[in-house]
Write a structure and sequence with these properties.
The structure holds three protein chains of three kinds. Chain B contains 13 helices and 14 strands. Chain B is an alpha/beta fold. The chains are: A alpha/beta, B alpha/beta, C mainly alpha.
């Protein structure tokens, strides 16, 4: 049985003059201990997906329809009390900016111990011991001293480690990490990613990694979803998606990376921009930027079809098969 | 590195230093130490003794992590900051000590593109106003038609529809704004462009568009770039030469191809190994100890010693100088100089 | 969220304003709408006073002392031609209030214009130039703020009244009032503007303007000032209300407008002597007008502060 099963999730935002659809019929599964990457550019809806999974959306956003089954229970229909138990206890979230997540006026120890005591029947001393163990797990040197420190006394990398320790505090089944290293430097990012990978593997924790960085996804995850304008346009095993993407957008995204072109040559750019939520094109949302677009693409939203190991939402997958750009990615 | 070539570099940065004082005024500098009051000013050593050259037509990339002083270098060259010590020469002329009037002719030659396209355009000016302003300022005698033609020309050259000129910046997406910011820099026909992280705020597919635009401008206008970035894959693609900065000092300067095929400084190696790769499964990531120290109290000796696996006694006491290597690169590292690096790796 | 399609037909300036954030929140806020309507009614009536008012209260020929202290028409013993009754000198109260409101608004707005001019110039220079000049100007502002406006105004007006004599003073009372209220409150503007300038100065568009070689004056006026307008609008409304109250207070104390050219404050003051003899309306009706006027201006200011960035206002 899968740990998480999302079916036809639709999220809308009630704006001033209209209601816009931010997520449109998202469906995917996550097995226990599986690592899933969600890739897309800003405005694709990847962060909103993360928030919806914990039912954390706040006005004007709301879940319009669909099911989010976590360990067999629908998150959408949960009572507030059940939700509080879910968040932190069974599902944890790591955000981009550690400074926002940590409360600046409480010490690390206070934040960790109080989280533990709120969810478990523990004495203060027991909670403290667990906190120290968790800090050790994320390779924080001299954890006893860190417990007495305030967030601003720590460096960015250290803070993100502590966030991970807090996320792991209650041994959750699933961690949702929303661009966890975007604010960090390359060398620190590599450390944090390695740590996260190690912890997920050793504790059998599921991971949903939301990022715009295909390189990170490639190294961290087993499966990947590619999102565009509120829909999943391609999903499957990460290796397949990186090596042999089927959707023209995924191909474009990978081909646009500087690594894919000889230095000094023009990069293979995708023309145009991601559409705004209020002006999503008819048919396939990607058609104005797609060189394979046909009349069918302009009028009809493509169904998700199984293509090899991948699920792709594109009318023209078959025709694309012969195209040279795809060959290049594969090469 | 230039002494092999007789040609004078277009931009020549010599022993540049910049410190920012943290304490201002008498009360802040007064400290209580060992029973007496002493005056002491803490300062951030953002840039320490940096020398760099950029030749005409080149794209010199400056890479490094946050706090390494790369943006400060850009701002010093652009004249937005004045150096604490050292000199900046452009085309044979010293430019860091010019008066406001003296620097005017250079403002047409040296232009800058900023990181955040949401902040680098004045939100209360239409695109036309923003683009016409620099043309008018530098060509006071130009007729209205000439100004409009110039603006139309640059807008077309960056791929922005001239009929959008009446709009305000907030009506555009990040990529389009960055195009407009580039257009604005191009209105004065510059020959040298300082680009401070111009694509890091943009999405992947838009990054490619803007990078292509900058490459096109380089070829068609013969531009020279000083390109500041933290993204090594962009450097490999865009740069002709690279300078790696760490804590305000240059670690390594080399031709792009040389640096990527044969990095020498331990920091450069770690940096290159940390970039997430698309294709290979397991990263061969060199782990660095600890994190970047604050640039407030710089350690004596090599700035990288606290995180370096090869640091020896000499590294703690003496700051390494940049030394020419046989393949034309310059490396500031005692271990490289003493050949300790490869011995250790081998042994 | 980035957009792709920009429609090419531009809506008119008016409809853009109506559909902007400000227009929208205005429509959605009944307090703001009512305040705006009341304010516009008072302002129109006041500025059209010579047209609307049945009598000219400044013209002695129109005034008959025998008409004094008639009550408003809804009270027994009123004369039908004096809608709101008459004051102690026999002037039609309705006309006098219209003219008085006009004076109060005029003094308020001009004084605020003067404050804004001084404060914005000083604030811009202090914020942009920084360093010692900034410290000097801001210390001056602190000193100015540590004297209460009324105290400064009372001393200044009392001295001028004694120096020029009451006749000359009365002739130029409007000018003196504008000057003293205008000068006394410039630090409010200077501090707000300086805070915004400091925030704006760090933004990249200012660096961009500097790299393009524009001079400091151009950067201050063309680039920074237009981006600092929101907090200026907000404090302007509050300051107009404050200036009207200051003027009323000074006139009430006999240091403002003379009884021959009454503002709202001097009307209230002149009626005050008769309040216990039963002629309450001479004080009460102008008092209500003053309170309503100040209230609606403050309500509009509150609304504006909520719409435009509230953080900047506090800074």
């Amino acid at each position: 049985m899968s740990l998480l099963s999302v079916r036809d999730l639709t999220v809308k935002f009630a704006m001033r003059d209209q209601t816009v659809t931010a997520l449109n019929g998202i469906s995917f599964d996550l097995a226990k201990g599986e690592r899933l990457g969600i890739v897309g550019e800003s405005g694709a809806g990847k962060s909103i997906t993360g928030f919806s999974l914990m039912n954390l959306l706040s006005r004007p956003g709301y879940i319009d329809s669909g099911k989010i089954e976590f360990e067999g229970e629908d998150v959408v229909k949960m009572s507030d009390k059940r939700l509080r138990d879910l968040r932190g206890n069974r599902m944890a979230m790591i955000f981009q900016d550690p400074m926002v997540t940590l409360n600046p006026v409480l010490t690390i120890g206070q934040q960790m111990i109080e989280t533990l005591m709120a969810h478990r029947k523990l004495s203060r001393e027991e909670a403290r011991q667990i906190a120290i163990v968790k800090l050790r797990e994320v390779y924080i040197p001299s954890p006893e001293e860190r417990l007495e420190q305030y967030p601003h006394e720590l460096s960015g990398g250290m803070r993100q480690r502590i966030i991970i320790a807090i996320a792991l505090l209650l041994d959750p089944q699933l961690i949702i990490a929303d661009e966890p290293t975007t604010a960090l430097d390359v060398t620190i990012q590599a450390d944090i990613m390695e740590l996260l990978l190690e912890l997920c593997q050793s504790n059998q924790v599921g991971l949903i990694l939301i990022t715009h960085d295909l390189g990170v996804v490639s190294q961290m995850t087993e499966r990947t979803l590619v999102m565009y304008a509120g829909r999943i346009i391609e999903q499957g095993r990460t290796r397949e998606i990186i090596n042999d993407p089927q959707h023209p957008y995924t191909q474009g995204l990978i081909n646009a990376l500087p690594q894919q072109t000889v230095p000094g040559q023009r990069l293979k750019q995708i023309p145009g921009n991601m559409p705004g939520l209020a002006s999503i094109p008819t048919g396939c949302a990607f058609h104005p930027r797609c060189k394979y677009a046909t009349d069918l693409c302009r009028s009809q939203i493509p169904e998700v079809v199984q293509y090899g190991d991948l699920k792709v939402a594109c009318h023209e997958v078959q025709r694309l098969q012969a195209d040279e750009d795809r060959q290049e990615v594969r090469a | 590195m230039t002494d092999a070539k007789t040609e004078t570099p277009l931009l020549d940065i010599r022993n540049l230093e910049k410190r920012f004082d943290l304490d201002h005024g008498l009360l802040e500098t007064l400290k209580f130490r060992k029973g007496k009051f002493v005056r002491e000013t803490r300062s951030v050593h953002a840039v320490n003794n940096i020398s760099l050259q950029a030749r005409k037509g080149e794209a010199l990339c400056v890479v490094g992590e946050s706090g390494c002083g790369k943006s400060t270098v850009a701002r010093l060259v652009a004249g937005l900051l004045t150096p604490t010590a050292g000199e900046i020469h452009y085309d044979g002329q010293r430019i860091d000590n010019l008066s406001r009037a003296g620097i005017q002719p250079l403002r047409k030659k040296i232009q800058m593109i900023f990181q955040n396209p949401y902040a680098s355009l004045n939100p209360r000016m239409t695109i036309r106003q923003a683009l016409e302003e620099p043309v008018r300022h530098h060509n006071p005698n130009a007729s209205a038609a000439e100004v409009r033609d110039k603006v139309t020309e640059v807008m077309l050259s960056v791929g922005v529809d001239p009929s959008w000129a009446k709009r305000y910046p907030h009506e555009f997406s990040g990529g389009q704004r960055q195009r407009i910011a580039i257009a604005r820099a191009l209105t004065v026909n510059p020959e040298f462009i300082i680009a401070d992280e111009p694509i890091s705020a943009l999405d992947v597919s838009i990054q490619a568009q803007v990078l292509n635009l900058m490459l096109e401008a380089k070829e068609s206008r013969g531009l020279t770039y000083l390109f500041i970035t933290h993204d090594l894959s962009v450097v490999e693609h865009f740069g002709t030469r690279v300078a790696v900065l760490y804590l305000g000092s240059v670690c390594e300067v080399a031709d792009t191809a040389t640096l990527f095929s044969n990095p020498k400084h331990p920091y450069t190696r770690a940096l290159l190994s940390a970039v997430p790769q698309l294709k290979d499964d397991r990263p061969n990531h060199i782990r660095l100890k600890g994190e970047i120290p604050t640039p407030i109290n710089l350690p004596k000796g090599c700035p990288f010693q606290s995180r370096c696996a090869f640091a020896g006694a000499r590294c703690k006491s003496e700051k390494p100088n940049a030394i020419h290597q046989p393949d034309g690169s310059m490396v500031a590292c005692h271990a490289v100089e003493e050949n300790r690096l490869d011995e250790m790796a081998a042994g | 969220m980035s957009e792709t399609v920009i429609p090419n037909d531009r809506p008119s300036r008016w409809s853009r304003m109506w559909n902007s954030n400000m227009g929208y929140s205005f429509r959605r806020n009944p307090v703001a709408v009512v305040s705006m309507i009341v304010f516009l009614m008072i302002a129109f009536a006041a500025f059209l006073a010579p047209v609307i008012a049945p009598y000219d209260p400044y013209d002695p020929a129109n005034i008959d002392i025998m008409n004094s202290e008639y009550p408003p028409i809804w009270v027994d013993g009123a004369l039908p031609e004096f809608m709101l009754g008459t004051d102690d000198q026999g002037r039609d109260l309705w006309s006098t209030i219209l003219y008085g409101t006009r004076l109060s608004l005029l003094i308020g707005i001009c004084a605020v214009a003067l404050q804004a001019f001084l404060g914005i110039s000083i604030g811009l220079i202090a914020g942009y130039v920084g360093g010692r000049l900034d410290s000097l100007l801001m210390r001056l502002a602190d000193i100015q703020l540590s004297f209460s406006t009324l105290m400064v105004a009372i001393i200044f007006l009392a001295v001028t009244q004694a120096m020029f004599g009451s006749d000359t003073f009365n002739r130029y009372a409007v000018v003196f009032l504008i000057a003293v209220i205008g000068v006394a409150e410039w630090p409010q503007y200077a501090r707000t503007v300086r805070a915004t300038v400091l925030a704006e100065k760090k933004k990249e568009y200012v660096d961009s303007a500097r790299v393009l070689g524009f001079g400091p004056l151009r950067i201050m006026v063309r680039h920074i000032l237009p981006n600092s307008l929101s907090p200026i609008f907000v404090i302007s409304t509050v300051q107009v209300a404050n200036a009207i109250i200051s003027e009323a207070s000074l006139s009430f104390l006999g240091l403002g407008m003379p009884p021959s050219q009454p503002s709202l404050g001097s009307l209230i003051s002149s009626g005050f002597d008769y309040i216990f003899s039963g002629s309450w309306w001479i004080t009460a009706i102008p008092g209500v007008v003053l309170v309503v006027l100040v209230l609606v201006i403050n309500l509009l200011g509150d609304w504006m502060r909520d719409v435009l960035n509230p953080k900047l206002y506090k800074g």
